[in-house]
Inverse folding.
């Protein structure tokens, strides 16, 4: 072909007219000879595929195909020549810029009066975007199908009458019915009459408002009669007018979860009942313990007081002269009796505190004076060990400690206990008692010593009953280990607390923190 348009329009049974009609067509047009070589292409073809017209004419159609399919052209073209029409034949072609395009061809074959092949007349349409959209749709459908078939949940669709129009394969494991058996039924067909009425009412209300179904629990019946509890969620499907024409959703089997929750509730109820029973038993046991300790303490204190009293009489010489050995042994008896009496008193106090039988009596109290008296009471023991005692009362301009509402006996008991421990665990050095107040109405009583100190791991343990802390290389101290426990509990009863900080080998500081109430009744 020379490319001269006039040479291509030689009349052949109306061929020129046909050629002129397609030349100006808005769609791409091409014509091939019996070998598949280009006879003609129109401007629209050039625009679609991006080649110069002279670069196309005379070349074979296969040269413009994707190499992957170019080898199929001779056979397919041979079959086309045997027919009169070409219907939606799709080829993957390569544009002039190298990009692939999917092109659909529709046309007819021109023949002479003897029926011999002359040429093809074809219009073409670029369907690349449509093919890509179709592929995306197929990919999306494939992903959805994969999700539906691999998930353990049941995927479903129902129409406006709540009739299943789709059921995923999981329905068989869930209900014992195949998807084909489920389609045509309603969800309510799989429920008891009472449950169907309840769920149908909820579903109807949601559909009327066009609202989604969110985690709706419902009880269904399997084919074998066994109950199965589902959690249903779904969204409405709308028609072109925006009306609800069905629902699409998912069912999750929560039967085992609900059974586990019921077991947990039963367990918690049993546990609560056991706790109540054990608490009642503990209260009874604690009451019995308190009564026993009170009785035994009373029974023990009476003979102990007699032992201590008669020891004093013998030591004073009121019953006659005694020698040194007798005096030494009597002093041992008196000391042991006093130690045992202190233990009995501590146990009795502890039992009263635990039984909440200790009352707090708020009286007009000079806190500085109470603390000072406690220090003086301990002075003989401190001087015997060569320990210096120092008292720093609250500053004179602070009115809080001058006269406040306080239980003086409980305050005295706590401070004496702290001072006694400080002197006991201090071999040499000093013990300081300081009283401080804050403007917020809090009083701090601090007892600081230069004693052996306490290991960090023991700082909280020392407040436990019958617990004592001592350094690894120190001998176990005497005492019952009840003093600090009683002191902290008394501090708590007064609305405060007792804390400690210590450095092993350097000493300890115990801090009693108490709220202040003024004599006029106002809090600090």
């Amino acid at each position: 072909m020379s490319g001269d348009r006039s040479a291509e329009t030689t009349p052949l049974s109306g061929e020129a007219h046909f050629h002129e009609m397609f030349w100006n067509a808005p769609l791409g047009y091409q014509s091939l000879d019996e070998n598949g070589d280009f006879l003609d292409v129109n401007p629209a073809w050039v625009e679609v595929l991006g080649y110069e017209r002279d670069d196309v004419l005379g070349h074979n159609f296969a040269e413009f195909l994707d190499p992957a399919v170019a080898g199929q052209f001779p056979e397919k073209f041979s079959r086309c020549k045997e027919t009169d029409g070409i219907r939606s034949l799709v080829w993957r072609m390569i544009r002039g810029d190298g990009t692939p395009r999917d092109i659909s061809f529709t046309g007819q074959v021109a023949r002479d009066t003897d029926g011999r092949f002359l040429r093809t007349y074809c219009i073409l349409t670029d369907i690349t975007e449509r093919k890509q959209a179709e592929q995306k749709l197929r990919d999306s459908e494939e992903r959805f199908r994969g999700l539906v078939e691999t998930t353990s949940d049941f995927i479903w669709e129902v129409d406006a009458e709540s009739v299943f129009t789709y059921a995923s394969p999981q329905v068989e494991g869930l209900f014992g019915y195949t998807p084909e058996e489920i389609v045509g039924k309603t969800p309510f067909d799989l429920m008891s009459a009472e449950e169907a009425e309840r769920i149908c009412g909820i579903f109807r209300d949601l559909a009327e408002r066009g609202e989604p179904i969110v985690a709706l629990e419902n009880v269904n019946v399997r084919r074998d009669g066994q109950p199965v509890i589902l959690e249903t969620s779904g969204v409405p499907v709308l028609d072109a007018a925006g009306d609800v024409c069905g629902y699409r959703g998912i069912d999750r089997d929560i039967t085992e979860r609900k059974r586990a929750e019921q077991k947990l509730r039963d367990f918690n109820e049993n546990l609560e009942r056991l706790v109540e029973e054990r608490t009642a038993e503990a209260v009874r046991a604690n009451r019995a313990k308190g009564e026993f300790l009170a009785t035994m303490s009373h029974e023990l204190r009476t003979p102990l007081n007699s032992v201590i009293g008669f020891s004093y009489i013998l030591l004073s010489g009121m019953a006659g002269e005694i020698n040194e050995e007798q005096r030494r042994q009597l002093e041992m008896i008196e000391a042991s009796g006093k130690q045992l009496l202190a233990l009995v008193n501590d146990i009795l106090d502890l039992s009263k505190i635990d039984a909440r039988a200790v009352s707090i009596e708020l009286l007009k109290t000079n806190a500085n004076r109470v603390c000072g008296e406690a220090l003086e009471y301990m002075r003989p023991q401190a001087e015997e060990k060569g320990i210096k005692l120092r008292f720093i009362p609250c500053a004179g301009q602070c009115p809080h400690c001058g006269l406040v509402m306080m239980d003086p006996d409980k305050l005295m008991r706590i401070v004496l206990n702290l001072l006694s421990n400080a002197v006991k665990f201090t071999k040499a050095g000093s013990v300081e008692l300081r009283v401080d107040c804050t403007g917020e109405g809090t009083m701090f009583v601090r007892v600081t010593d230069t004693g052996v100190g306490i290991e960090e791991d023991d700082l909280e343990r020392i407040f436990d009953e019958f617990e004592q802390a001592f350094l690894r290389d120190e001998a176990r101290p005497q005492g019952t280990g009840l003093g600090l426990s009683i002191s902290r509990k008394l501090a708590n009863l007064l609305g405060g607390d007792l804390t400690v900080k210590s450095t092993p080998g350097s000493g300890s500081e115990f801090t009693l923190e108490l709220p202040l109430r003024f004599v006029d009744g106002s809090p600090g």
